[in-house]
Amino acid sequence: MTRRGWREALAIVAWLLTIGPPVAGQTEGTLGLGASVIEYDGFLSSGAVVFAPALRFDSPRLSFGGQGSWTMFESGRSVIQGTAAVAWLAGSSRAWRLELSGSAGASEYAAESVTGHLLAGARLHVFAAGTGGWLGANLGQSFGGPSGVPMELVVAGWSVSNRVALVGSATTTFQGRLRQLDLVGAIRWTGPKLELEVRAGARPWAHDPENASGGFTEAFGEITMTVPLSPRLAVSLGGGKYPSDPVRQVVGARYLSAGFRLRTFGRQARSVPVHTTGVLRSRLVPTDENGPPLEIGGPAERRTLRIRAGDATSVELMGDFTDWIPVRLTRVAPAVWEIKLAIPAGVHRVNIRLNGGVWSVPGGARLERTEFGGSVGIVVVP
Length: 382
What we know:
Blueprint: H1 5-16, E1 26-40, E2 46-58, E3 62-73, E4 78-90, E5 96-109, E6 115-128, E7 131-143, E8 150-161, E9 164-175, E10 178-190, E11 195-207, E12 218-228, E13 233-242, E14 253-266, E15 282-285, E16 294-297, E17 303-308, E18 315-319, E19 327-328, E20 330-333, E21 336-341, E22 346-354, E23 366-370, E24 375-381
Antiparallel strand pairs: 1-2, 1-14, 2-3, 3-4, 4-5, 5-6, 6-7, 7-8, 8-9, 9-10, 10-11, 11-12, 12-13, 13-14, 15-23, 16-17, 17-21, 18-19, 18-22, 20-21, 22-24, 23-24
């Protein structure tokens, strides 16, 4: 249940900074409850109970997410934390996008002073079939910790193939006279009834004049397993080690945790296209209960997408190749609807909607489910 700065960032990105959800404008709330054994750097290990509510809103361009946590240690002392982030995606290119974001967080332990951060950032995302990456920078202010204006420079890449997603990043941090480099990699495997994520990294170089440190400092890693029990309830187990994050005032620790996560309200959870994190939150299953079939043909620069729906008065489609913005098909013959779009070869995600109803998976596609029951269609375009 514990978080370190880069893991928080990846979690927020998974909420906020994808290329848009299959449902335009969606709000979701969750509650987490678990138990942990935590050993912070320089302290003895302690048992703790963690309560963590979260809220997120997603639309094709603007997204917001917030998460709080209340950790009660066996000593009777507690930590209250909160993190919020907002992101706006600019441009409409299918090869690149610009993202502007901001985040804030605060933490209070017992009667000690509040610590936290306030950051603004920008990222340039680039995409290809099943792969991509981004260049980014964050600049802002930390309080209650090291002095100096914090700045982060990040370069990252990701790849998605069937049930496996990979992401790697290199982050250079500057804060006052402090300098450090973090290298992080993550792999996520999504099975029919189990999701497994492994993260590993190292801080190969750090320079802190106040502590006379330099050179290689530490290696770290975490593993998390999630098992969905129902469309609203999932259980998770995790453990490992994460390093300190001076920008977000997070102390490094080792931990073991187990807990439950309950979706309290909102529509069925969306399928995350995994453009920026490489963290899959869904599983692929075959289905024979799809909607009208989707036919795709023609050259990449002008594909013809055709849906045969006899009773429809309107047909819409959206997918990763439309930036998850709905587009309306034109009736070209009785029961035949078409649109022409530029779609590169590869694996794509797409949903359709008839007569302004609910978004559904087109016939002939594979069904990708989220851990909480949302769905989107997977098609392969040659």
